[in-house]
Amino acid sequence: TLFLFTNKRQINRKKEDTHYRLLPMAGAYNMRDLGGYRTIYGKHVKWKTFLRSDDMNKLTSTDLDYLTLLPLRTVVDFRGEAEKRAAADHLPQTVSKHIPLPIEAGNMSDIAHFDKNNLSAVMEEVYAFIVRHMQDTYKEFFRILTEKANTPLLFHCSAGKDRTGIAAALLLSALGVERDTIIEDYMLSAQHIQAKYDFITKDHPELKPLTTVRKEYLETAFRVIDKEFGGIESYLINNLEADIEKLRNLYTE
């Protein structure tokens, strides 16, 4: 009954109803539609255009049929090579472009000191590192987004919360969604992926900061963008070469 793309009652619900963002996937925990968010220009992000997700290696045939209804055309994968080898994506037949844009865990090995007693601070440093040093990756991401023929498009990593969370935050920012709303969308991952990592946190509760999201993580990324790159619009235009006017024309209504 949560068939987001076919249930007529969905159309009449508030577009900000986050319960209906989560797609009814049997083989994924955190696949969500980014549509419906209101922009500062009084428009809304189009539904059925951008999906964010955790890994896709356990998608069932029913899940793939569901994604075929879009029809999903492009998948962007932010996982590293080892992650992809261990858990290859299951894709619907409608996907014609499966694009690797790896953000390797090894790329973050020079973060100064991993304090195991303060893993939240470690995660904040990871987010700061990504927005400082992974700009070429996200630049290519925005180049792909600018081509309407690439949509509907799904982007994902393993948990769908960090590399994907930053990508979603940047995309929604480019489309004109307010920061508070972007952080609310980001925080939905805390609900959806908890069960995925219960087997870890049950025996090692000290690792919980690594398996969830906290608003401080994304706020750190925004703080770096604001202080070091002149704000989000400057970062998008000058560092990521995002054509935000074109994106807003294409993907808001």
Largest sheet: 5 strands, mixed
Strand content: 5-15%
Strand tally: 5
Strands of the widest sheet, in order across it, are: 1-2-5-3-4
**Rounded mean pLDDT score:** 89
Helix share, percent:
40-55%
Classification by helices and strands: alpha/beta
Shape summary: globular
Count every helix, treating DSSP H or I runs of 4 or more residues as helices: 12
**Measured distance between first and last alpha carbons:** 26 Å
The ordered H/E elements are: HEEHEHEHHEHHHHHHH
| Contiguous uncertain segments of 5+ residues | 1-18, 106-113
From the alpha carbons, calculate the radius of gyration and give it in angstroms.
17 Å
Textual characterization of the structure:
The chain has helices spanning 8-12, 61-68, 81-86, 119-133, 135-145, 163-175, 179-192, 198-201, 208-211, 215-229, 232-239, 244-251, and strands at 32-33, 50-53, 74-77, 97-100, 153-156. 44% of the residues lie in helices and 7% in strands. The protein has a five-stranded mixed β-sheet, with helices on one face. Residues 1-18 and 106-113 have low confidence and may be disordered. Strand 3 (74-77), helix 3 and strand 4 form a beta-alpha-beta unit. It is α/β, with parallel strands linked by helices. It contains twelve helices and five strands.
